[in-house]
Amino acid sequence: xxxxxxxxxxxxxxxxxxxxxxxxxxxxxxxxxxxxxxxxxxxxxxxxxxxxxxxxxxxxxxxxxxxxxxxxxxxxxxxxxxxxxxxxxxxxxxxxxxxxxxxxxxxxxxxxxxxxxxxxxxxxxxxxxxxxxxxxxxxxxxxxxxxxxxxxxxxxxxxxxxxxxxxxxxxxxxxxxxxxxxxxxxxxxxxxxxxxxxxxxxxxxxxxxxxxxxxxxxxxxxxxxxxxxxxxxxxxxxxxxxxxxxxxxxxxxxxxxxxxxxxxxxxxxxxxxxxxxxxxxxxxxxxxxxxxxxxxxxxxxxxxxxxxxxxxxxxxxxxxxxxxxxxxxxxxxxxxxxxxxxxxxxxxxxxxxxxxxxxxxxxxxxxxxx
Length: 370
Hints:
The chain is α/β, with parallel strands linked by helices. It is 32% helix and 16% strand. The chain is built from 13 helices and 12 strands.
């Protein structure tokens, strides 16, 4: 056999071996993506979309920051504005887990695929309201008394199954700082989450006078009930705001936090344990019980709240500008006509390409933020 033939045989063998290795790796990648899109271990959640079309510099960062946001149809503009503000204020790799109901998915997709949002990396997860059966008391006089997506935060490990840590945010928020700083919030050993406490928050110092019990446990729980008293939680304990928090999902799973939250939801249905003059969302009381003296704190400037109430008008422009995160919790939302500093929120709002969502502004004018 000539030397030339030997070289040809070796070359053919090398090429064949390379193709076999390439084929094997391709199959492995294909299986990985399939698991990414439809994890069979998810109960009550169905991942509907995975969009990996982010810039190369975004995809190959060493660590992604998972941010979970709920997206309800009537507040979808809020979700869009949160994502836009986070994306444009960080150089870190962020992946958004957008939790919504099935009938909102098409509207959400069309919005996300438009304009400056098309490079955002995200997953859409369909939330099954049946998860809440027997856990939430429904008022027959109020058709919309239960908003399922507000409970999505209770199921973080299901929503972000492969992450060790995640950030949860409400949809009435604008982020002005680098989300990496919030993500790097140190959590004490054994703590599954870090919240911003109401009494000690920077924003509370501005408006706490005359606030009554809305910053204490007694404003959320009925201390006349024996089951609550038996927990030996001080009624004067400072509450915290669950609209923004950082979660250690490893601790969350080890401590069965979701199970504990569901337990107290069921008990409330049976025994009405929440305060009748509930100071905030019905998601807050079970979180206060489960995390009583068992949570870390986030920097108060990462949850400057009450912009959705009349108290927000007391903030100076300098204070608002310095805030890392603005939160319009309360009755007045920034897409409505009476919220404080709505102009700052509107800078991050992207008009709805379908025209379904419109901003309501003063003097009865409906604007679509041209």
